[in-house]
Amino acid sequence: MHELSIVKDIFDTLTSHYESRVDDIQKIQVTAGLLSNVQPVLIQNAFDAFITENTHYRNMEMEVVVNDIIAYCEHCQKNFPVHFHRFVCDCGQPSSTIVQGDELYISKVIFKHD
């Protein structure tokens, strides 16, 4: 399950960026694109397992926001939504330029005392 290694990386990132304030984090929001191969339920389970083992984080929450896939059409010069992994614009032109959907990042950190 690669979600557990992702959760460990999230905590490594939080620790390195917020050092002394990491224990004051109440909630984090993680944004994952549909192409990132992250399953929201599995990453939530990995997060729950991690905070169970690391009890000083037990009051922290995590929310996962899933972004749809958006591609760019060179022909029309516009973005279009990708459905069912079909990277073809309404104009009929294929595209391999991904604008959104392959990302995975911490999008929000909320502290208890803010």
Automatic annotation (TrEMBL):
Keyword vocabulary terms for this entry: Metal-binding, Nickel, Zinc
GO MF annotations in UniProt: nickel cation binding; zinc ion binding
Biological processes annotated in GO: protein maturation
Gene3D superfamilies: 3.30.2320.80
UniProt keyword Zinc, yes or no: yes
Protein name: Hydrogenase expression protein
Naturally occurring in which organism (per UniProt): Sphingobacterium athyrii
